[in-house]
Design a protein that fits this description.
This protein has 147 residues and is mainly α. The longest helix has 74 residues.
Length: 147
């Protein structure tokens, strides 16, 4: 009688463990999907911000270029055009970020670093452990009570 009851309990326990494993996998999959969607939304917001900024900066750059060119012609001094050089670099960077291939190049370089230079990503003194956190917490705690 006890054997039948024990076998039934083992089967029930095994089914429960399988259910918990499936449930935890489903939860992890949902978390990964949510994190990926949030990352995509943040990236889209960054690109949209860059494009909006480019509209304003492009207008400023255009007006500055016209004004500086007029000033250089009027004063007959080409040195007045010098501020256009750094402004053009900023404009080109913002344009590349908003409409060009800058993000793809950054992604490619990041993948290269992950694949070939992973030692650059290591934290000083290695990864943080629970023991390290407890040691820091104890040293900074004013209310620490030793067991």
């Amino acid at each position: 009688m006890g054997f039948v009851f024990s076998k039934s309990m083992n089967d029930s326990l095994k089914a429960q463990q399988e259910f918990m494993l499936m449930n935890s996998r489903l939860q992890l999959e949902r978390q990964l999907l949510m994190q990926n969607h949030m990352r995509e939304r943040q990236t889209a917001m960054q690109i949209a911000w860059t494009r909006e900024f480019l509209k304003y900066f492009g207008t400023f750059f255009g007006l500055a270029a016209v004004g500086l060119t007029a000033g250089a012609i009027r004063k007959k001094n080409p040195g007045v055009l010098m501020p256009i050089v750094p402004l053009s670099f900023i404009f080109a960077y913002q344009y590349d970020m908003g409409y060009g291939t800058l993000l793809q190049r950054i992604k490619g370089e990041a993948e290269n670093i992950l694949d070939t230079q992973s030692t650059l990503l290591e934290l000083p003194k290695g990864p943080l452990t629970y023991e390290d956190l407890e040691k820091i917490r104890r040293s900074q705690s004013k209310f620490f009570i030793e067991k």
